[in-house]
Design a protein that fits this description.
The complex is a heterodimer of chains A (about 850) and B (about 120).
Chain A lengths: L4 H10 L1 H11 L5 H28 L4 E2 L2 H25 L6 H17 L9 E3 L8 H16 L8 E4 L1 H10 L2 H5 L9 H10 L4 H18 L4 E8 L14 E6 L2 H14 L3 H9 L9 E7 L5 E6 L10 E8 L3 H5 L5 E6 L5 E6 L5 E5 L7 E5 L2 H4 L6 H18 L3 E7 L5 E8 L5 H6 L21 E4 L1 E10 L13 E4 L15 E4 L7 H9 L3 E3 L4 H4 L5 E6 L5 E5 L3 H4 L13 H11 L22 H22 L7 E5 L6 E5 L12 E2 L6 H10 L14 H8 L16 E5 L3 E8 L2 E8 L8 E8 L4 H17 L3 E5 L2 E7 L3 H18 L2 H4 L3 H12 L8
Parallel strand pairs in A: 16-17, 17-18, 18-19, 22-24, 23-25
Antiparallel strand pairs in A: 2-3, 3-6, 4-5, 4-6, 7-8, 7-13, 8-9, 9-10, 11-12, 13-14, 15-19, 16-20, 20-21, 22-23, 25-26, 26-27, 27-28, 28-30, 29-30
Chain B lengths: L3 E6 L3 H12 L4 E6 L2 H10 L4 E5 L7 H11 L4 E6 L4 H9 L4 E4 L2 E2 H11 L2
Helix pairs in contact in B: 2-3
The chains are: A alpha+beta (about 850), B alpha/beta (about 120).
């Protein structure tokens, strides 16, 4: 727009938000009919998009067999629906919000994943502070998680820069390594030759230049003495699978270009180590298919280090946090080689240390100050051996930080930490912790211990610790040296002194693993849980008690009970679950899951939160949520400022806190048009009927229903903001009404209701469309509520479609009188179902509360 | 108890893998899979299968040809046809050739298992 210079400069001086306000203030007003039409079209496109998203979620949840063609077919429809929605939204709000760039960003990310791999940034090396969410894949799982801890949770992370997968691609290309990785047809790729070529390769000049600049910055920030920990951060590392212990980490690397490049090349080369290749093969990767990013983390010289699990990975207990600690570097914790300190913290309003076991910590690992790039193992000074590494206050501080991280990532975490000489805690890693899901536990047969067994159980020096539960039988293979793994017989039980990530090589065919030492927090323990290998560590002397070649049967359960007997014991084996690969081990399956991550999760929940902005939309669902909320707010704004001098959106005061605003498009209200309205002012037949039900005596239950920890975990699994509580955003619900029509979108806490109904004298025109989705509790409880709603609506002749926690019910071509009666029932049901997910404890409750509703009894039982 | 032998043919690796994995979760199924009709027919000449699940549209030998060959070699072996989308013409053609069942993708695993269970003696 050409403006006189003076006006432009005034607007510039006033700043962005003021100019936006002026622009809107003087923009031509839309006619009411257009406002409603755009609003309705936005809602229609949004609903269609949500149905497509739900369908995708259901098809990709493991209960369907699919290929990429399914996504290729359905995604363009979804993207087009979003585009329609955005176009109508922009008209409605007169381009007031920058939602289109947010959508374009997510859309290009998804398109890249569907139609071809690519990168979204230009720089190949960047500081952790500059890592944005959409570059997750490029910086690899490990570095991305650290960037989230630093940039969003503002936790103490050592200064870090990342060489992205783009840098890796450039390195491969510059050194023509793809040619070595893909040999002539009929020949096997030679991993050793690839490793040699990687180590002999050079960084491309452009990359070297970037690295040089970054290292100069690190120098000026931290001084010449500082060193780096150069760590792998492969694309999928620390995601659905941990890759724990599979790749190289080089500690204590001087901030010198040549040293850093050499360390990086070692990390690249470790992709082709036999163990790492076995792991990749297990996860369905083609040779050379996995790309590597690298995190260069400022080296901490720790007084103590360790690992935190925010849940018990074996029992699945999410009420306790496990922390272990040792002196010096944490390498011995994840190697499982020494007896470390163990703490169990009980969660709750006032967390407390329930168990505290001080380990003997015979040795400790420290940085070797005489040899850059090296660490050394030294005997722990006698006065420190049996001294706890952490005072109780620090244990609780670590537990608190861990709980905060878990809440952010919405799933239990496996966290590495370090404590420096100044008493500062640094976080070095956070990744999802594999635990036994309650669902899987419930499906397992209940097996009794071998009371009828003729075999005597073996007794070891120590009781042993269950890393992964299960039942197995086979011949014992006592391992003395790692190279003996080459001769490991299929189906045997591995017995070794200490655990090792090298065991990944035999994971496809090992029946079980037993070790003398080790802990549940080691790398091997993580890998065993990932692949469901029954594993027992810390028996003290299994290598001495169990005879090489002898046949044994073992059982380890989630309560930690262990039974190992001589020979085949059928009383134990009858409870055995066949070990099979999981869908997650298929590469294509995971790829489609990753695509879905940019589509289905809802992060933007609370419209009152500061982060409710287009820039915070990370998924298409977020975009839809933003559009919906701002469309509703637009109507409310019109009511506040008036349209042609007359308010058009009016607040409705009810006896229940439903937070509804009313837009009348013709005959929906009696003469009164002043806010607030009361129920008596409503003339719309379907809305009147619905309100009658919602305000039915006793139906809107005001009893507080408590959410437990699991409910909380269920809700944080989908929503990022809980702290503001449900009632904070139940205010912006809009009912668009006429004499014979109602369209009500209503969010109540964490679930959403939609009622669309036409109620005329012509039965052929009449319909009720009811849609219900979401909730604050876990999927099991939400599904119970959906069952209850389903059972009730079926009684009233609805045609029902359920997809996950989404229910869509339709009733059409019925007489006006029946529509009115049914809408009254739907109103009661909306009120009744509000907190029902937290009330229903089991399937019997579903029957019970369905019956009570149908009998007109709306009270919750204690 | 001897196991039922099931042969899967689909040129999409993920479909073969997911199906194999799902069926092997069931007790009593031994599953082999091939990414093309040619190799699968070679295998069929060597070994009798109790059930064949084949994709319709594949390069070279397509699902109908697999169906016809199976019926010639082993009239009692049931064949399930899968296809990328519901196509009535294909379904009618397959029914003429005595196909046991017909599934458009994505396939609900529970339904597929149920259909296999019903077809096996």
């Amino acid at each position: 727009m050409n403006r006189p210079d003076g006006v432009s400069s005034i607007l510039k001086t006033l700043g962005g938000s003021t100019t936006k306000w002026l622009r809107n203030r003087f923009a031509p007003k839309l006619p009411l009919a257009d406002i409603y039409r755009y609003f309705k079209e936005v809602l229609e496109s949004n609903n269609h998009a949500l149905e497509l998203i739900t369908d995708m979620g259901q098809k990709l949840d493991g209960s369907y067999i699919f290929d990429i063609n399914y996504i290729k077919r359905i995604y363009p429809e979804l993207a087009d629906t979003l585009r329609t929605s955005i176009e109508r939204f922009n008209r409605l709000t007169r381009n007031n919000y920058a939602i289109e760039p947010a959508f374009t960003h997510i859309d290009s990310l998804i398109s890249e994943m569907i139609y071809g791999e690519g990168t979204t940034g230009d720089d190949s090396i960047l500081f952790l502070d500059d890592v944005q969410w959409f570059r997750a894949r490029e910086v690899g799982g490990k570095s991305f998680h650290l960037s989230e801890l630093k940039n969003n949770l503002h936790l103490n992370i050592p200064d870090t820069f990342v060489l992205t997968t783009r840098a890796y691609d450039e390195f491969l290309q510059y050194n023509r390594l793809k040619e070595i990785m893909q040999p002539a047809e009929g020949r096997q790729p030679d991993a050793k030759a690839v490793q040699d070529a990687v180590m002999a390769g050079s960084f491309p000049p452009r990359l070297e230049e970037q690295l040089d600049k970054i290292l100069q910055t690190m120098h000026s920030r931290h001084g010449a003495e500082a060193t780096l920990a150069v760590r792998s951060s492969a694309e999928e590392e620390d995601d659905l699978f941990s890759f724990a212990g599979q790749f190289e980490t080089i500690l204590n690397v001087p901030i010198v270009k040549e040293d850093v490049i050499r360390a990086c090349k070692r990390v690249y080369a470790s992709l082709f180590d036999p163990n790492a290749l076995a792991y990749q093969e297990r996860l369905d990767y083609a040779f050379g298919g996995l790309r590597m990013a690298i995190g260069c983390v400022l080296q901490i010289d720790p007084v103590a280090s360790g690992v935190i699990y925010t849940a018990n990975p074996v029992s699945g207990n999410i009420d306790e946090i496990l922390i272990n600690a040792t002196w010096g570097l944490g390498t011995s914790v994840v190697d499982g080689t020494i007896d470390v300190d163990n703490y169990v913290v009980e969660r709750g309003k006032s967390p407390r240390i329930r168990e505290s076991k001080v380990g003997s910590k015979e040795y400790m690992n420290v940085l070797d100050t005489t040899q850059p790039g090296k660490i050394k193992e030294i005997p722990t000074p006698d006065d420190k051996k049996n001294l706890p590494c952490l005072p109780p206050a620090l244990v609780l501080e670590l537990a608190e930080k861990a709980a905060e991280i878990e809440k952010y990532f919405r799933t239990p975490q496996d966290i590495e930490w370090a404590l420096d000489a100044h008493g500062s805690i640094f976080l070095l890693q956070s990744r999802p912790l594999k635990i036994v899901s309650p669902q899987v536990k419930a499906d397992l047969p209940h097996y009794t211990h071998n009371t009828d067994s003729v075999h005597q159980p073996f007794l070891f020096k120590k009781p042993g610790v269950v890393v992964q539960k299960g039942i197995a039988a086979g011949n014992v293979y006592v391992l003395h040296r790692i190279d003996e793994l080459d001769n490991f017989p299929k189906g045997a039980i591995l017995v070794a002194h200490s655990d090792s990530p090298h065991f990944i090589r035999i994971m496809p065919f090992v029946a079980a693993i037993i070790t003398d030492t080790g802990s549940v927090t080691s790398h091997m323990a993580s890998v065993c849980r990932e692949f469901g290998i029954p594993t027992i560590v810390n028996t003290g002397d299994a290598t001495k008690i169990l005879q090489h070649g002898g046949e044994i049967t073992l059982e380890a359960d989630e309560s930690g009970e262990i039974t190992i007997v001589n020979g085949l014991d059928n009383s134990i084996l009858k409870g055995r679950q066949q070990h099979i690969r999981r869908m997650e081990e298929l590469y294509e399956y995971r790829r489609q899951k990753y695509i879905l991550r940019h589509i289905a999760p809802l992060n933007l929940v609370n419209p009152l939160a500061d982060e409710f902005t287009p820039a915070k939309c990370r998924t298409l669902h977020d975009v839809l949520r933003f559009i919906h909320e701002k469309s509703v707010q637009e109507l409310i704004a019109i009511s506040q400022h008036g349209l042609f001098g007359k308010p058009s959106l009016l607040r409705l005061d009810l006896d229940v806190p439903a937070g509804i605003h009313v837009l009348d498009i013709g005959g929906g209200l009696s003469a009164k048009t002043k806010s607030p309205l009361s129920a008596d002012d409503i003339a719309s037949l379907p809305f009147k009927a619905l309100l009658k039900g919602m305000t039915w005596k006793g139906a809107w239950n005001t009893q507080a229903v408590a959410l437990n920890v699991k409910d909380f975990m269920g809700s944080v699994g989908r929503f990022s903001v809980l702290a503001s509580g449900a009632s904070g955003f139940a205010e912006n619900n809009v009912a668009v009404i006429s004499k014979e029509y109602i369209n009500l979108h209503m969010s109540l806490g964490y679930h959403f209701n939609l009622v669309d109904s036409y109620c005329s004298e012509k039965a052929a025109n009449n319909h009720i469309y009811f849609r219900f989705v979401g909730g604050a509790t876990d999927i099991v409880k939400r599904s119970r509520r959906i069952k209850l709603i389903d059972k009730i609506l079926v009684e009233f002749g609805f045609n029902i479609n359920i997809k996950g926690d989404l229910l869509i019910a339709r009733l059409s071509h019925v007489e006006q009188e029946e529509i009115i009666e049914t809408l009254t029932m739907v109103g009661r049901l909306i009120a009744y179902a509000r907190q029902m997910d937290a009330v229903l404890r089991n399937e019997n409750d579903v029957e019970l509360y369905t019956r009570r509703f149908l009998e007109g009894n709306f009270e919750f039982l204690e | 108890m001897s196991k039922y032998n099931i042969l899967i043919i689909d040129d999409e690796k993920i479909v073969c893998d997911m199906m194999k994995l799902s069926l092997e979760q069931e007790e009593g199924y031994e599953v082999e899979s091939f990414l093309n009709g040619t190799e699968a027919l070679e295998r069929l000449k060597e070994k009798k299968f109790d059930m064949v699940v084949t994709d319709f549209k594949m390069k070279g030998i397509d699902g109908l040809e697999v169906l016809r060959t199976v019926k010639q070699l082993y009239p009692k072996t049931a064949v399930i046809m899968i296809t990328a989308f519901a196509n009535l013409d294909v379904a009618i053609e397959a029914l003429r050739e005595d196909v046991h069942d017909f599934f458009p993708k994505p396939i609900k695993i529970k339904d597929l298992k149920e259909s296999i269970r019903k077809a096996l003696p």
